[in-house]
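Standup notes
- DV: blocked on the single-chain target, sequence here:
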Amino acid sequence: MNILLTAAGSYGDVAPYTGLGARLRAAGHQVTLATHDSHAPLVRAAGLDFRSLPGDPGATPAHRADRADRDAPGTPTTRRALMRRAATFVAHLGTGLADAVTPDTELLLLSTTTAPLGWHVAEALDIPTVGAYLVPTAPTRAFSPVLSGGRRLGGWGNRAAGRLSLRVVDRLHTDAARALRLRLGLPPATPGTVRRRTEAADWPVLHGFSELVVPRPTDWRPGLDITGYWWPHLAPDARLPPAVEDFLAAGPPPVSIGFGSMAATDAERLSCVAVRALRRAGLRGLLLSGNAGLTAADSPADDVLTVPTPVPHALLFPRVAAAVHHCGAGTSAAALRAGIPSVPVPFTADQPFWAARLAALGAATAALPVTTLTRAASPDDAVTRLAAALTEATTAPALRTRARAAAHHLTTEDGPTTALNALTRLAP
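- DV (later): unblocked, structure below
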């Protein structure tokens, strides 16, 4: 079967589909992953064909953005800025998605970000589709929407907020959907109309996370399934950089501090807080630079190492004592898989949701939103807070025990194979 996976966004929004795609390919399917050019090496390394999508968030590295402009390329931390960035992203994505889907596609797998536009393309080309989501989006009484900041609104409030969240997404796609349907020769239809029609048909959605972390809500409609995590493809010969290996071998397990694709409004201050907190807690540390631009360059010593290039979490996390991270879905999963405690520092979007999930499992300290570190009354306040969390993460036996229990559970799951079996049933 000729399968086209579509995914848009940062590394964490795309990498899990390389693991899913590799499993589908191993089963004999022809698999193409359509995403941004910056992810092309990742896709091809997994043995998948690549097609380009516009709107590449990696085109301008976030740490090079003007820190004074909170809407510059990077990480918007307010809801209004987030929606403004999303609207621009959607406008670019629509045309590219139509170009990426070819008539010989036999099955179209749509991510959370590509589904609202992919439905129109699939309608025009008469191609069957299945959702392949990394976050839950269907309204439920069990929890509030992932973009609600992890707030608890009660059963009725959670479900009402979930419906409202879908309507917000509909409005966000209004202009792009109108232009796309016009180009495709489809009759006018609002995004909300198309979504409701899709849901009424019990459109199948496979969710690439574990029920340990998000149990399937009892009030979800039929067709919404949770498969287990889709781990990013890792080449058999993948290794950590020699400098990292040397640092790991030179002393006790360090703490990993990194925020992936998130950009800091003040990288220098955040780096300083991280280094000082490590030393106050008496810990060694690895600073994963990422888009936040973390660095210990101004504090030369042998207790902190700056790692300027991305490293696979699957190789690094099992060898550290704990991880300080932004709580993206993929990084949160990687910490659980490694059996290490997390110190959540959520920036935006779904990150507070995953931070709350890790805490509920007992595998993380209380969240420290990034603004508590970058906008604290004084840098020393931020250092004190982070140092206390680091001490808790590395000394509290309960955190380590529960993190290891979660890791053991995840070894019993095989998300890509479960997804493959589901697609075998669903595909024509």
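- Follow-up: Residues 61-74 have pLDDT under 50 and may be disordered.
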